[in-house]
Write a structure and sequence with these properties.
alpha+beta, Cytidine Deaminase, domain 2, five-stranded mixed sheet, cytidine deaminase activity, CMP_dCMP_dom, APOBEC/CMP_deaminase_Zn-bd, zinc
Length: 133
């Protein structure tokens, strides 16, 4: 199934969740929305923890929701922040997204500046670790 990617629409799905982000340590609030090949959208936010290694990013939170719902193919991931500029997924998130689709479209948006950057995951993460299946 071919899915039409509405960049502004996907950003709009993530925006309402930005205020739910829990980031008392970094104060970097992030919400994500994942669009799948079936046209479903899953959202997530970053949730920090005093034991920093237990923090989960918004992108991985949304990917986890996708997997929990039984889907496996993200075609686009919107990353929305309240920072001055759009921010890309961290390396761990890039690896997790690549596990399911190394060709996913990554949409980065700042609600503060209104700026949006769109890149293919292959541009941001050209050599993911992938086991032969």
């Amino acid at each position: 199934m071919s899915v039409n990617i509405n960049i502004e629409g996907l950003i709009g799905k993530a925006k309402p969740f930005l205020s739910n982000s829990y980031a008392p340590y970094s104060n970097i609030h992030v919400a994500a929305a994942v669009l799948t090949d079936k046209g479903s959208i899953y959202t997530g936010v970053n949730v920090e923890n005093a034991s920093y290694g237990l923090t989960i990013c918004a992108e991985r939170s949304a990917i986890s929701a996708m997997v929990a719902a039984g889907e496996r193919k993200p075609v686009a991931v919107a990353v929305v922040t309240d920072m001055d500029n759009p921010i890309p997924p961290c390396g761990a998130c890039r690896q997790v997204i690549a596990e399911f689709n190394p060709k996913a479209l990554i949409i980065m948006h700042s609600v503060k500046s209104g700026k949006t950057i769109v890149k293919n995951l292959e541009e941001l993460f050209p050599q993911p670790f992938i086991l032969e299946k």
